[in-house]
Amino acid sequence: MDPAPPRSPEQFIADFFTEYTAAALDGDNDPADVVDRFHAPDIVQIADGIRLDRDRLVAHIRPVRKNLRDYRFEVEEVIADGDRMAVRMTIHATMRTTGTVVTEVFLFGEFTPDGKLRRADQLTRTVPAA
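RESULT FIELD:
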């Protein structure tokens, strides 16, 4: 049996965020376990100037579970250099009370060799829904 071909950077990013979000929304999963499965222990994520460490990411899962109803990610482009990636993607989210929200994300991330997110700096902007 031939080994599976390596994933493209675009597919890696799409899989990472789709799988992370699905795991976060699954009420049977402990939020801390979800964060640990997808993030390095020393994770630092700065989103629109707000610094999130492991504990803040764990706390963020509860409101996401309450409010997010549906989602999909469109990876527009990725530039990869070793463990670092620059990503431009669009998140389409259906929220419990506000309906559909479309967010463009510009992310500069660093991943561990086993595919966990170690650092992310991201800027986001809401765009009109199509």
